[in-house]
Design brief:
Layout: E1 3-8, H1 21-30, E2 35-44, E3 72-78, H2 88-103, E4 107-111, H3 113-127, E5 131-135, H4 138-141, H5 145-157, E6 160-163, H6 166-176, E7 183-185, H7 200-207, E8 215-221, H8 228-238, E9 246-252, H9 256-265, E10 272-273, H10 280-289, E11 292-295, H11 304-311, E12 316-319, E13 333-336, H12 341-353, H13 358-363, H14 369-388
Parallel strand pairs: 1-2, 1-4, 2-3, 4-5, 5-6, 6-7, 8-9, 8-11, 9-10, 11-12, 12-13
Length: 389
């Protein structure tokens, strides 16, 4: 069997169970088809006031951290926000090399372009094996000086680049000069045993919701770029004509305190639920208990929660960014421009009023994580065969 060293900073952790769920699922499926060892490298920030990441909850886990279905080795590397950005790939690569070398892989597969993909490419070169880098979304959509330069360098030097949407593939080719023949689109799947239609009334009873309520659900990180301020603005306006409407914010993140304060200031305490981050099974229950799922992000790769929402038979109101239009059309949801609270309000109103065919929405979602793993392994094995010629 092919030996794959999978490198990533994105996996579920106790303080953020939604982080890297797509990588966890891909890695777990891939482990049934190849010998996979996952190297979970985490940036370790200094414990100083005002120094913390802006886009995710800070915190590392110990070397004994385990994730279901994965052979895992966890370690940290030191970083300073902004200051060390140019060398993060070198530092993490230095610590990664002996670990991957001991595993003796046939190929190195990294998810997240910089610094992790960069480190993986350097390690692969030193070991004389191919390197595949997977881009997930904000790792190529968020552009900044040195990060942009290092991302471009990583994409250029990798033997293959995986993207989660065709839109992202075109971005890599157009804006990062990636050779078209080495960029492969492998869109995300979903767990069919978890995300499927369930009886709405049963789910509402289990979650303590009113049987006759109308509700909207958001699932994801609480960060600015997810459009949560716009969502609260739109929801506040909707409540003027729908006083019994509820909003379920399922997740956690660095914006949680701000969101709770906005909810308080808007007198929405009885209308907005914030149950926290949770396991996929519970996420599916919240989706099925609600009427509409929304994702008003400013940017996305291939948003898995949109797939999961549709798989549960729920219509989706989402912004037309990244690969979202590859999932949503007039039969299963509504697309709107980003950063537009009025458009969001109107789309949510239309979605709540429309009679949707929930079974038909769910039936269109068929792609599994095994499908993703098969295609990923195919890219890896094609590279290995090419090297043996």
């Amino acid at each position: 069997m092919t030996r794959i060293a999978l490198v990533t900073p994105m996996l579920p952790v106790p303080h953020d169970m939604t982080r890297g769920r797509y990588i966890h699922e891909t890695g777990r499926s891939l482990s049934r088809m190849a010998e996979v060892k996952v190297f979970f490298q985490q940036a370790r920030y200094p414990r100083l006031p005002l120094i913390a990441p802006r886009s995710f909850i800070d915190g590392t886990v110990g070397s004994d951290h385990q994730v279901d279905g994965l052979e895992l080795e966890t370690f940290t590397y030191p970083v300073l926000p902004v200051v060390s950005r140019a060398i993060n790939g070198h530092v993490s690569g230095h610590l990664l090399l002996p670990r991957v070398k001991a595993f003796k892989p046939d190929i190195v597969l990294a998810y997240w372009v910089y610094p992790d993909g960069y480190a993986a490419v350097r390690v692969a070169r030193q070991l004389g094996v191919p390197a595949v880098v997977g881009a997930l979304g904000s790792d190529i959509h968020v552009r900044s000086g040195i990060n942009d330069f290092m991302t471009r360098k990583t994409i250029r030097e990798a033997d293959a680049l995986l993207t989660v949407s065709e839109a992202m593939r075109q971005t890599a080719i157009r804006e990062f000069d990636a050779p078209a023949d080495k960029v492969h689109t492998i869109v995300n799947g979903f767990n069919t045993s978890v995300f499927h239609p369930r009886d709405q009334q049963t789910m509402r009873q289990q979650l303590g919701m009113d049987a006759d309520e109308s509700s909207i659900v958001y699932v994801g990180r609480f960060v600015e770029a997810k459009g949560l301020r716009e969502l609260l603005t739109a929801f506040t306006a909707l409540r003027q004509t729908r006083p019994k409407l509820k909003l379920n914010l399922v997740g956690d993140g660095v914006m949680k305190a701000e969101l709770l304060e906005l909810i308080r200031q808007s007198n929405l305490g009885d209308a907005v639920r914030v149950p926290g981050g949770m396991e996929p099974q519970k996420v599916a229950e919240w989706i099925c208990a609600s009427d509409v799922l929304t994702l008003p992000s400013w940017s996305e790769g291939y948003p898995n929660v949109v797939v999961e929402g549709a798989a549960c038979g729920r219509p989706v109101v989402a912004t037309d960014v990244g690969g979202t239009r590859e999932i949503i059309d007039e039969h299963n949801g509504i697309l709107i421009p980003p950063r537009d609270p009025l458009a969001l309000q109107q789309a949510l109103e239309h979605a709540l009023d429309r009679a949707w065919d929930h079974q038909a929405i769910a039936a269109r979602m068929q792609r599994t994580w095994d499908d993703v793993a098969v295609e990923t392994l195919q890219v890896c094995e094609d590279l290995l065969r090419h090297r043996q010629r």
